[in-house]
């Protein structure tokens, strides 16, 4: 398959469309992920080649960058898909306020995850304090194992 192909969609020809492999190389995003993005409607496409290869124009680079940015901010693919549907379907509605709401939900979710991780760090510190001797090698964890021959009487 050539690096670039000519897309044939509805009897028209779009010059110099990229295959999914080229898009993957240009964006650094794996082909499998790009297929998922396309299936979710997150990437502009120009159709398929005569050999049924997915084809993309330069606009797809922008789409992949936007999705990458939003993923980097913690949005789920479901949230991005919902925003995309509003962006494409309701062109009279600015997307900014919806994105702001979604970012607030991500912020709440992230703070909850931070609290979970802080609780985990506390449990680790407590465990380390309770097992200092074993962790330093001055005692053996096997003394607590009921099947160990080192288990006390």
Overall description:
The protein has about 150 residues and is an alpha+beta fold. It has two domains: about 1-75, Multidrug-efflux Transporter Regulator, Chain: A, Domain 2; about 95-153. It has helices at about 20-25, 30-40, 60-70, 75-90, 95-130, 130-135, and strands at about 5-10, 10-20, 45-50, 55. The protein has a four-stranded antiparallel sheet with strand order 1-2-4-3. The longest helix is centred in the C-terminal third of the chain and has 35 residues, at about 95-130. It is elongated, with a radius of gyration of 26 Å.
SSE topology sketch:
Layout: E1 4-9, E2 12-19, H1 20-27, H2 31-39, E3 47-48, E4 54-56, H3 59-72, H4 77-89, H5 96-130, H6 132-136
Antiparallel strand pairs: 1-2, 2-4, 3-4
């Amino acid at each position: 398959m050539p690096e670039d192909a000519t897309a044939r969609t509805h009897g028209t020809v779009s010059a110099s469309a990229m295959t999914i492999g080229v898009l993957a190389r240009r964006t650094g995003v794996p082909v499998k992920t790009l297929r998922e993005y396309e299936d979710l409607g997150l990437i502009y496409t120009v159709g398929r080649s005569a050999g049924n290869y997915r084809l993309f124009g330069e606009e797809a680079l922008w789409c992949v960058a936007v999705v990458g940015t939003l993923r980097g901010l913690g949005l789920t693919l479901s949230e991005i898909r919902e925003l995309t549907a509003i962006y494409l379907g309701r062109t009279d509605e600015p997307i900014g306020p919806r994105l702001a709401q979604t970012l607030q939900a991500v912020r709440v979710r992230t703070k909850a995850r931070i609290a979970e991780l802080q609780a985990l760090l506390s449990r680790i510190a407590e465990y380390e304090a309770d097992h200092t001797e074993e962790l330093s090698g001055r005692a053996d964890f096997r003394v607590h194992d009921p099947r160990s021959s080192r288990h006390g009487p």
